Amino acid sequence: RSSDAEHGDWRDFFWNPRTHELMGRTATSWGLILLFYLVFYLFLAGMFALTMYVMLLTLDDYNPTWQDRLTTPGMMIRPKGDQLEITFSVSDTESWDGFVQNLNNFLSPYNDSYQVQTNDDCPPDQYFIQEDSGTVRNIPKRSCQFNRTVLQECSGISDPSYGYSSGQPCILIKLNRVIGMLPGKDGQSPYVTCGAKKEDSAKMGPVKYFPPNGTFNLMYYPYYGKKAQVNYTQPLVAVKFMNASLNSDISVECNINSNTLAEGSERDKFAGRVSFKLRINDK
C-alpha cells in the first residue's frame, strides 16, 4: 500500500487533476516563468550583440587597433625539421630529399620572373614608407622585390640540392612579420649572425651568408599587413655551413642584430633568435 501511495504521490506531483498543476505549477505560473526566462535571455543576447557591435566599430580591416606583441619578433628556419632539428646523411639521398622539396616549395614565390611582375625594384637601405593621405587609403600598398637569385649558392638554382648533397647545407632564416615594425635606423639594416654553443664552436666551421652580411634590408619595412600589402614578400637570409664536422650534433643559434630592436630575454627563447640542431652524417 505504501508503494501505491508513493506512486500516487509521484503521479500527483507530475499532474494533479484536482488543482490542474503540472509538476507543482499551474499553467499561468509556467507561462509567467517561461516569459521571464525568454525576456531574460533575449536581454542577455541583446547585450552581447551590442557589445560585439561596439567592439567591431573600433576595428580596422587594415590596421590592428591593439597590438600585444614582443618588442623583438621571433625567428624561424626553413627547411622545417622535427623539433628544429636538421639531420641527414650526405650519401643517402632520401634523408635530405624532403628538405630540398620543402625549400623548393617555400622559395617558389621568390622566383625572379614572378617578383618582377608583382613587386617594385626599390632603392635599398631605406624604408619603403607608404602612408595614407588623411582619410584616403593608400591601398593596395606596393612591395619590394626579393629575388631568389639574391640567395646565390642557396637559391636552389645553381645547386638544386641546396648543398645537402655535398655536406654543405643551406638553412633559410626569416623574421616574423610585425605590422609597422622599423628594425633599424640611420640606414643600417638588421643582420643575422649564427654561432655554435661553446662546446660545439669548433665543430661548426665557417659559414657564408646570403645576401652578403646576412641583412634583412630596410626596404622591406615597414610591413603593412596581409590585407593592405597583398604581394608582400618576406625577406630571407640564407646560412650555408661550409665545413661542419660530420657525425656529430652541433647546437647552432642564430640572432638578429639591430640598432633599434632589443635583445631577446632569457624568458623568451624565440625573441630575436632561433636555435636548432644540425647533424651531418657521412653514411
Show the helix and strand layout:
Elements: H1 2-14, E1 15-16, E2 21-22, H2 27-58, E3 75-78, E4 85-89, H3 93-107, H4 112-118, E5 170-175, E6 191-196, H5 201-204, E7 207-210, E8 237-241, E9 249-257, E10 273-281
Parallel strand pairs: 4-10
Antiparallel strand pairs: 1-2, 3-5, 5-8, 6-9, 7-8, 9-10
**Portion in helices:** 25-40%
**Strand segment tally:** 10
CATH topology of the largest domain: Immunoglobulin-like
Total helix count? 5
Radius of gyration: 31 Å
Apparent shape: elongated
- What portion of residues belong to β-strands? 15-25%
CATH architecture type of the largest domain = Sandwich
Instruction: Give the topology string: H per helix, E per strand.
Output: HEEHEEHHEEHEEEE
Low-confidence stretches at least 5 residues in length (pLDDT < 50)? Answer: none
- The assigned structural class equals alpha+beta
The largest pleated sheet is described as: 4 strands, antiparallel
Q: Give the rounded overall mean pLDDT.
A: 87
Cα-to-Cα separation, first versus last residue: 89 Å
Largest sheet strand order:
3-5-8-7
GO molecular function: ATPase activator activity
Pfam family, one: Na_K-ATPase
Family: Belongs to the X(+)/potassium ATPases subunit beta family.
Main location: membrane
